[in-house]
Amino acid sequence: MDRLKAMQVFVGVADRGSLSAAAIHLDMSRAMVSRYLAEMEQWVGVRLLHRTTRRLSLTPAGAETLPRCRQMLEMVGELRSAVASPEDAPRGLLRMTASVSFGARHLAALVAEYVGLHPGASVDLVLVEHAVNLIEERVDLAVRITNDLDPNVIARKLAVCRSVVCAAPAYLAREGEPARLEDLSQRNCLTHTHFGKSLWRFMRDGQPVDVPVDGNIRANDVSALARAAVEGAGIAMLPTYLAADDIAAGRLRPILASFPPEELGIYGVYASRRQMPLILRSMLDFLAARLESAPWDAQAPRPARA
């Protein structure tokens, strides 16, 4: 029996809560997962999992065995990395997720560049407007823009996401340009369904200031808000990675530049450092190198500091 594989299967079943989910993650049949699990239990001489028709749960012996298996698998992964040949290249499938706006505007091009550099690698890119469960959705790497990270995941900061408050010149000519942050409460503000839908946060004199906002258009995709702003529908708070081109072309004009919106982090998020595949480590390094300088900010004037 391949005892390392048996330990990997046991950890996979424990993490995912079912034989079927572990089989999908490990790319093997459910019957093979069951066989490895039975052989693992025979090897250690105790039952590791309680099995019912509805769920699996660890026995006391399983709870004691699980962290030891994780430790052993991590040691094996470190050993393999230490003796890996310099000629080793990233291979296999990496399943990634990101927001629709950032994925379409920037990440897709970077993924294309990455697979061009590493012909043995392939990427499954899932673009959604919500934070997926990495384990349940079998996601290896999530690119998330937030200041509120889940403490149960591991995150590497890739870049800073700055935002800009802006509107179309036609809207500003028609309605006038706000002079104070508080004026935004009296304007038609285009808001995101999940982020800052009723409060926009700014920095003033080094302190955060929350401004109540409302408007007649709300969307769960910031790209839609950008388009509505270009059409003169109202004022929007947009990430510079999305607004840069429209600002440079004069389709949008920044306002209230003395009061920059709160900055967010752009993170590469993954579930575990244990047995971290080369393709995941390589992609993180690649994205950090490409995104660290936030290249889109070169196209959009950065808001002045208060």
What descriptors fit this protein?
single chain, 306 residues, alpha/beta, Arc Repressor Mutant, subunit A, D-Maltodextrin-Binding Protein, domain 2, 3 domains, 5-stranded mixed β-sheet, 14 strands, elongated
Question: Can you offer a commentary on this structure?
Answer:
- The chain contains nine helices and 14 strands.
- The chain is α/β, with parallel strands linked by helices and about 300 residues long.
- The strands form four sheets. It has a five-stranded mixed β-sheet, covered by helices on one side. Strands 11-8-12-7-13 form a five-stranded mixed β-sheet.
- The longest helix is centred in the first third of the chain and has 23 residues, at about 60-80.
- It is elongated and about 75 Å long.
- The chain starts with a helix and ends in a 15-residue tail after the last helix.
- The mean pLDDT is about 85.
